[in-house]
Design goal:
The chain has 401 residues and is an alpha+beta fold. The chain folds into 2 domains: 231 residues, no CATH class; 116 residues, no CATH class. Helix content is 42%, strand content 15%. The strands form 5 sheets. A 4-stranded antiparallel β-sheet has the order 11-12-13-14. Helix 5 runs antiparallel to helix 8 and helix 9 crosses helix 11. The longest helix has 26 residues. The chain is globular, with a radius of gyration of 22 Å. This is AlkZ family DNA glycosylase. InterPro entries: AlkZ-like. It holds the Pfam family AlkZ-like. It comes from Streptomyces ferrugineus.
């Protein structure tokens, strides 16, 4: 890169991660909303991930479940909704309009068109019929406040209509209108996930009418989302940004230009080897934590899944043990800004872990002692709950067994 472009090395990237992602002890947060704001989004595909990701970053982990449930279901300071890459996340409520405009609108249009096409192919009722069903469903949901799909179908029986999709293909299946319609309404930002039927580990959610939010300009919303993410995760390459947002590269570049992002030199990169970006003014050196730190992060944690190019915090040889076949990361053990192993919960509640890096004698003992403290911390607040990751990985399966 040209003269005057600052180089940010691996050590500094790890220091930024430790502080900005609330992982070092001195950087831990006071509440779940602080965590979500620091990370921009918490992965919500696996419900337990939200709580485990928060608990790993709270100064007082014992408050994890109570405070996270309050933020999600009472204060509504956090909202579970579809976001980047058509994935379910938990966002600070103030970001819902930004996420909807920047990433949801395009996905929603595709989802609705796909549903109408599949229903037509299967000989199911037409788009006008579907529009009438959805208005009736939204009215029923507004009356109830929160409801499951089955409860809504009791009010609107047409939600039980079934249709076959992909007839004659290897992946042929049957959907109910309720399953697909609620999904479409979710990505359109008209409904959100409500309180689960069971505990905080349950994946069976009620639905609720989405809170009202302003309709934002797409380009402006994309610029704001990228600014927030780069503030938390910068520096990042174009490849990282394209992967995390799910946008086209032209959209990424437009947003980078809109926020005046500054180019920096990295040890990795694509689209210009070694080129990364930070928000304007974020090029000064960042001091790392005063003390070494360890963390046990859950499967799909937003830090572990934050970048497409991960060699600066995750050695390639560790990936087969820590990822499933679809690229989902499992529970990971961190030491000073990099992944050094994995962990799991056994049936009796014990938190077990294994280091996968050769750290040497004295250093290994120090890491083991710090990780043991974190493992006990997790066990303390998880209590009687049993957590099995939705996407299981080779090491997690081995350890939990």
């Amino acid at each position: 890169m040209g003269d005057g472009v600052r180089y940010i090395g691996v050590a500094e990237r790890r220091a930024r991660l430790a502080v900005r992602h609330r992982l070092a002890q001195e950087a831990r947060a006071q509440g779940p909303v602080d965590v979500a704001e620091s990370l921009v989004a918490l992965h919500g595909t696996d419900p337990a991930t939200v709580y485990l990701a928060v608990g790993a970053r709270l100064a007082e982990a014992a408050k994890t479940v109570v405070e996270t449930e309050r933020a999600l279901y009472e204060d509504r300071a956090l909202v579970r909704m579809h976001g980047m890459r058509h994935t379910v996340f938990v966002f600070p409520a103030e970001l819902t309009a930004v996420v909807h405009a920047s990433t949801g609108l395009a996905v929603a249009a595709r989802e609705r068109a796909s549903l109408i096409k599949q229903m037509a192919t299967a000989g199911a009722p037409d788009a006008a019929w579907l529009a009438d069903v959805e208005e009736s469903t939204l009215a029923a949901l507004a009356r109830r406040g929160q409801a499951t799909a089955a409860e809504l179908a009791a009010d609107e029986p047409r939600l039980r209509v079934r249709f076959v999709y992909a007839a004659g293909k290897s992946y042929e299946g049957t959907h109910t209108v309720s399953t697909r319609l609620l999904r479409v309404l979710g990505v359109e930002g008209r409904v959100v996930r409500g309180r689960p039927l069971g505990s905080w580990t349950s994946s069976q959610f009620r639905w609720a009418v989405a809170p009202e939010h302003p309709e934002l300009d797409v380009a402006g919303a994309q610029a704001e989302l990228l600014r927030r993410w780069l503030t938390a995760c910068g520096p990042a390459t174009e490849a990282d940004l394209k992967w995390w947002t799910g946008w086209r590269v032209t959209e990424v570049r437009r947003a980078l230009a809109a926020i005046g992002a500054q180019a920096v030199s990295l040890d990795e990169g694509t689209g210009g080897e070694g080129t990364g970006y930070v928000v304007a003014g974020d090029v000064e050196p960042v001091a790392g934590p005063a003390e070494p730190w360890a963390a046990l992060l859950p499967g799909l944690d937003p830090t572990a899944m934050g970048w497409r190019q991960r060699d600066w915090y995750l050695a390639p040889e560790l990936r087969p043990a820590l990822f499933d076949g679809s690229g989902n990361v499992g529970p990971t053990v961190w030491w000073n800004g990099r992944v050094v192993g994995g962990w799991a919960q056994r049936g009796d509640g014990e938190i077990v872990w294994r280091l996968l890096e050769d750290l040497g004698g004295a250093r290994r003992r120090a890491v083991e002692a710090a990780v043991a403290v974190e493992a006990e911390r997790v066990r303390g607040w998880v209590g009687a709950a049993r957590v099995t990751p939705r996407f299981r990985t080779p090491l997690e399966r081995e350890l939990s067994g």
